[in-house]
Amino acid sequence: MFHTDRNRLLMLTKDATLPLALSAVARYPLTTASITVRTARQAWKAAAVGGPATLLRLKVIGSYLRLFPAMVTRRREIGRTASERRRSLQDWLVSR
Q1: Of 50, 57, 71, 88, which shows the fewest CB atoms inside 10 Å?
Q2: d(CA 62, CA 36)
Q3: pTM over 0.85
């Protein structure tokens, strides 16, 4: 799960159009916060805050941020040498 989530964010950072990449990356910490709040509410009586899902997502965010500079560099390299526009590939890969 860790690698799936982290690599999805890295792939979007590297290959997606900027609006889609920004949207997905910004949404991930918001979803993490939502899960944390929901878990804390459910566990209030048990005195357990957070949980495995929250910890996993926090690790994903940390790993993503560590690898982010390399992905931005790679994104620029791909953009300079690409024979196909990101938008056309995104339309093919992402059904809406």
Answers
A1: 88
A2: 16
A3: no
